[in-house]
Design goal:
Layout lengths: L1 H30 L3 H29 L1 H20 L4 H26 L7 H8 L1 H16 L5 H21 L22 H29 L4 H26 L5 H19 L8 H12 L2 H12 L4 H27 L6 H4 L2 H18 L1 H6 L6
Length: 385
Amino acid sequence: MLIFAACLAIFVYGMVASMLGTINPGLAAKFQLTNVQTGYIALAQGIGLVIASVSVGPLLDRKGKKVGLLLGLGLVTLSLVALANAASFQVIAGAMVFLGMGGGIIITGANALGSDVSESRRASVLNFLNVFVGLGGFATPFLAGNLLGGDAVRVAYAAAALTGATFLVHVFLRIAPPGPRAPGRKGGAVFSVPLLYLFATATFLYTACEVGVWNWLAKYLIVRGLPSATALNVLSLGFALGLLLGRVIVAPILIRIPPITVTIVSSALMAVTTFAVLHVATPALAGPLVFLAGMAMAPVFPTTIAMVADAFKERSGTAIGFTITCGFSGLVVSSPLIGWLAGPDPAGLSTGLLVLPVFSAALVVVYLVLRSKRRAISESPRPSA
């Protein structure tokens, strides 16, 4: 039951993650948005994600994961309806704040729920669970490009209907309430463990890269000369499918290979593949490289969250929430940064997107530092008062 609930919720998050990148070309054409304005819209979503994820951890620890998931699903449904009816740049930005808040609550709650399934195989379970991020991310641009004509309004309404149905399913699911709190334990003690900040830096850099692809890849490929439908299919059949298959493949691997080793290799491959995407001779060649980039990125986020849950046996919701918050701070930084570096010239995206391989290389360094503290990862003391 826990897996079923978490899979449904995280599928919705996958839709949310790819939403802006899917409707970005349509919004830009309808409202004549520049790259900088699109960056501000992504910033609005990132602010909502940060607000939610920084506050939802304590909520999950106190009120339970079902309450958090219902709150997140409700916010996503309402914000998608608002987005479908937006009539100005300001309304779009406001709707994206609440879409981000809902998405942040969902991703934190679903990963915290999934981490309860199996302590011994947590990394494998969370990678399997996050396959559904890939499914959601695949579904949105695929349906938009092939069935909905890339129409931003129709895409938003379709996603709202699916999210509303998921909300109703979660109303009737039985999810255990939180257990009694241990006397003298304080959530704030989590923040006294230095290891937490290394994990947080890793999710910051990784999320900046993944969301940078979701938000900007389709527009970049269109600028390079691909038709809109083809660019959306590269986002779905390339990147999203790569994420999906990568997590399926890596789940059994993580039973035999240490999670930190997997993240180091994946980060290095991220740097290589994202750099290659920006330097292919023709845009048609980008598709296979985008798929490989998705495969490389696939294990990084869920495996990092699994290591956080292993390191913080108590108050895991708070620790996971903070780590994910720092990840969404990467969204707040990367998408506006890409827009600013790209400037008003659409062709400038090739420069702005260099953020992706640079951040990927920095991520390798962070995981190498974490590997040097491997004993601390496995033996990190439980937070105490």
